[in-house]
Amino acid sequence: MLWALRDIVKKYRPKSLTETKGFKEERIVQAKIPMISFVRLGNCSLSKSEILNKLLRAIDGSKLRLQIEQMTSIAHELGVDVDENCPESQNARQNANAITAEIEDILKFKETQLPMQGQIWKAVTSLEKEECRLRKENLRSKQNSYGISESMNSFLSAISGSERCYFLKWLRTNLDNLSREKLSWLREQYKEKSKAFNNSEIKEIDKQLSNSSLGTEHFFREMGQIYEASVTLPESDLSRQQLQHLPRLCAQLLIDGFPLELVDGDASNVPLRWVSDVLAQLNKLVSPNNKILVVTVLGVQSTGKSTLLNTMFGVQFAVSSGRCTRVKVSEDMKTNLNCDFLVIVDTEGLKSPELAQLDDCHEHDNELATLVVGLSDITIINIAMENSTEMKDILQIVVHAFLRMKEIGKKPKCQFVHQNVSDVSAHEKNLRDRKLLLQQLNEMTQAAAKMERKEENKSFTDVMDYDPDTGNWYIPGLWNGSPPMAPVNAGYSESVYELKKNVIQLLKNCESSANDILEFRGWITSLWSAVKHENFIFSFRNSLVADAYTRLCTEYNKWEWEFKKAMYTWSTNAETKISNVGVVGGNIVIDEVFTSLKTEAQTELCKWETTLLHNLTEYFKQTEGHVHLVERYREEFFNSAKILRREIESSVISQLTATAEIKKGMETVDRVKEDHTKHLEERVCALVEECRKKKCSMMDQELDLEFNKMWETTVTNLKTSVCLQKTKTYLH
Fold this sequence. Notes:
Blueprint: H1 2-5, E1 9-12, E2 24-27, H2 48-61, H3 71-77, H4 87-100, H5 106-113, H6 119-130, H7 133-146, H8 150-159, H9 164-196, H10 199-211, H11 216-230, H12 238-242, H13 246-255, E3 260-263, H14 272-285, E4 291-299, H15 305-313, E5 325-332, H16 334-337, E6 341-346, H17 353-356, H18 361-375, E7 378-384, H19 388-404, E8 413-419, H20 426-429, H21 431-451, E9 472-475, H22 490-508, E10 515-516, H23 517-532, H24 535-538, H25 543-579, H26 587-620, H27 634-694, H28 700-731
Parallel strand pairs: 4-6, 4-7, 7-8, 8-9
Antiparallel strand pairs: 1-2, 3-5, 4-10, 5-6
């Protein structure tokens, strides 16, 4: 029993933490708790309440506290077998302890022992969207330079042996204990710093809280990155050849019931080569061309998604242990569903507090939602009543994304599960709410279709297969009362069982034929490729925000064009004024006109900038067109208007300056031309007068000779004069 009890984690509040409203979270086998033995010797005449009071008094009076783990030695002395004392379990425990014993600081351990999934992998993720092949190759080379750490070598060696199931459970237990201790300490620090309002330290602790989770998924993630980096090496490279067995090893673990991470929750990326090769090996292991159907669950964080799947299908997805997206091969369903395997996909919680502070949190959630819905034959939308609005935002983006991505070729089925609704009449009472939900989703679909010019999609059901009468399920809470002592609600299991029967029936009636594993692999690749390059729509909270933003951009572009057009017209007229300035006064007149026009330009720029800012202010005051949804972009557009004014100002002043300089240059050329013409005329007249004084007739050849001689002398002198003027100009 000890082996089974190790998975039970309880949160409770001891009396010492009542005033501070703190709590403890630990595994039940490691908690120091009172031990009570019940021995029945005959009929009992005491009432239940009296027995309970006597027990509570006995507990308060006794200081003896034991850990269930500590009872193993006593059990051994009494001849009781302890299940986890078998050699396989103990060897696996030693291997797990060898890895976790060296962990003193989780952050440093991840940096030194699991380096490939850190900043380099996140950088690769961003470059994949930008298609920067050369920079990606450089980052992969950097990953290869790390080699395989000592901890990863121990991990790979342990999961390659026959004791891997024991090893992974021991490792998960040890890592959860370490993370729990670290997170508990950080929460206490956060509480203390919050009282002191020390924002810088709070921000640092907040960052550590996000990065201090460490589980087996991080080791598998590192394993995938080691493989992805290795395939960039030449095929003849020894390091690459030594790692070719990793996909088959992971596929075997998948068959054994361990989940495979599809999407890296930290980097928001799919390691496509790793996932593809694992699925290819899985296809070989389970015999080729096996048909599969896919069921996914999608919902906001902490709404009971993993618990729902665990209850429905008997799988063991981690509950409350961090963020990850996983897939698991379920039992053979060939007879009932006309397929060989059922693939169950669990997703990380959307709208998680850890991601809410990031600028791209909407993009992360929307990409994840679109991917899992696109992969599934049936999507279970898990909704808690307090966050149904956030879930509708996600669905709107999914619908919008499906309209935009041509690669999507199927129509997923949807089932809405409303958690924590115990009233048996909930289905009837919530008829109006269901109609309202569908109406809102229809409006969002129409808005998205209009933006994409696909007006033939007029309702939510045109994009997703959903029936408001049969597609909604109301499930009571898992617990009767408040944990940790609350019993499990039997109504929860019954409601989930009814949901499961409906899901199985929907899969039976599924019109589309099941894909095989290789087709599923290709579907992941094409769908993720489409999601990666659809950046615009994913950055918005929902389709209405995207539509409102597009409208704002359209209006702003119109005002920007009017501003530019008006200043272009004014600039053209100003340049004409400068070009038409007379010679009177020379450069002094041009400078006066130029200064006057610069002042006039500033006045004109201020007028149009004021008009643009006024238009923006009035636009944001509107009550129509969902303007309130883009309020967060107000400052961005006001800053754009100011930047636009500076850009136009710089352009206009540059054009005026260039025109004035050209005008000054042309006037200088005209003066030089006039002076040279006058000088040449004087020289010709002097030559004529000189010939006249000689009173001798000259032949045409002699006249030509004298003229050419005078011309060359005069032109040479003029050239020298021009050069001297240029030199003086440069010196000044």
